[in-house]
Amino acid sequence: MQKFDEMMRQLPDAGPLQFLSQTMGGMSQVQVQGVRDHYQRYANWLARQPQDTMRARREEAEMIFRRVGITFAVYGAKDEDGAGTERLIPFDLIPRIIPADEWARLEQGLVQRVTALNRFLHDVYHEQEILQAGVIPQEQVLQNAQFRREMMGVYTPHRVYSHIAGVDIVRAPNANGEGEYYVLEDNLRVPSGVSYMLEDRKMMMRLFPDLFSQHRIAPVAHYPDLLLETLRASAQPGAPDPTVVVLTPGMYNSAYFEHAFLAQQMGIELVEGQDLFVKDRFVYMRTTRGPKRVDVIYRRVDDDFLDPQVFRRDSTLGCTGLVDAYRAGNVTICNAIGTGVADDKSIYPYVPRMIEFYLGEKPILSNVPTYMCRNPEDHKYVQANLKDLVVKEVHGAGGYGMLVGPAATQQEIEDFRKALDANPGGYIAQPTLSLSSCPTFVDSGIAPRHIDLRPFVLSGKQVQMVPGGLTRVALKQGSLVVNSSQGGGTKDTWVLEA
């Protein structure tokens, strides 16, 4: 096994751990040196754990997750009989640990960023001051496929459009070689993954209860309470005791487990489009006791499928007349229709300017430097440096439609070059960051794997979140792609209390 002093040089999250005399039979002789302070206690504990014990715990976790039904449907993947496949999202036993001071700064940056993004959404669907000021080119917004003209002038309580945001954060060296948090992308439409954050924490507490008596770890179990509070606060005026539902596309959706899980945790109804109907511009759900008015819909259905009267005519996932009821102010949809224009990758480079324009503040969290291929100079540079860049489709998601230059074959690069020439405006490119890694328990033992973090930011009367978020880990050696659809796994995220 690779020595830890060599392995951990690339692990700014944990620090340069040095595990000596490591053997596959156990780690009782391991000496831990040079660990970042907030990892020290955990590293000392880990050094005393035999690998056989850790493997047994991993098998126990997999058995429990499978029994509970915590699976992820893989689109396009088929089993031997040609049916769609579901698999567990791999869970790693070794947590990602964030010290209190780092989290405090990160939380400030997230509140600032999501506040500005909501201000931007209200603006582009009302006065459009940022466009008139030339801060963002008008065509980038008004001709964006995610810009929904149906939302022009629509009132949203507290001027909030993205009530639940999942902001993807990476940690990488800055110009001074110091670890810094960067925003990789904003997810403002129907961000997923929070159920895995909650289940990972429950699993760690079940498998390693002694660790939680040794560390002061900020809790996350109250997230469903905060989410319900946020949803209820988003109700239109005149709904003092609002009825909230979760709208799911159904059991064949990849994140169906999460939809059912959150509805159960909040104590509200999980509904499909066929369970709802609109009468006199009010939304009702069918119940065994007759129709019941619905005030807030936490939708996990994409815009295009919400209302066949307005969007896709062939959709059976939404509810006819829903947009009309929404525009009349008789129901709130969370997240709002049209939020996608703010998290489109072609808009991402402008978020720092939004923060300065709306809040008069410098961004606390930096963007990753980004080349916009619609600009001729950027396009020329990207074409000349494809082997060194990460290139993404502006409407892509889930790790699809992207090129990781350093890991790509020459044929993949050439194929992407043709696609880029055919539609330069459909792509952005970013340098390949030296993402932080975290010790991860893999088949060969403990090894470094790249990670990111998705905190879940809730916006209602106030902006709030639980400490931490979902840490995703690229389980393939050297891979930078952490998405579960691409073979990534998850870790519990510990924010240490001060």
From TrEMBL:
Q: Name one Pfam family in it.
A: CP_ATPgrasp_2
Domain of life the protein comes from: Bacteria
Residues annotated as domain Circularly permuted ATP-grasp type = 95-474
Under what name is this protein listed? Answer: Circularly permuted type 2 ATP-grasp protein
Q: Which organism is it from?
A: Ramlibacter algicola
